[in-house]
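pasting Response regulator for the record, 118 residues
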Amino acid sequence: MSGYRGLRVLVVEDEPVVAMFLEDILQGLGCETVGPAGRLTEGLALAEHEILGAAILDINLAGERSTPIAAALLRRGIPVAFASGYGAAPEGFERLPLIEKPYREADIDAVLMLLTAT
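structre below
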C-alpha cells in the first residue's frame, strides 16, 4: 500500500470491466474510489457534489466527451487525469496528464503522485 490512504478518487469510465480494474488498482494503492460513473450526467453530479482528492476520467463516455466533468472538477480545484486509448488529451485540456490504455498499476501510481504533488 502506498501513501494515498483515504484519497478519494472519482472514477469515470463507461466500460464496466475497465472501471472494475481501475477500482481494484486504486483500492490496492490505498485510495477510496468514488463512482464509477459510466455516463456524463452521472459523472457531472459526482464531480459537482462529492468530496474528492483527484479524478481519473475516460475521455469517451458512450459517444460523449468527459470534458464537462473535467471543467467542473478544475473549477473546484480538483486535479484531473484523463485515461484513453486515443493517445492525446482532449482539445483545451492538453496540459492535463493522460494515462494511455491499457494501463498498469505503475501508471496509475505515477499519475496519482503527479496529481497529489500539486
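The chain has four helices and seven strands.
The two ends are 21 Å apart (CA to CA).
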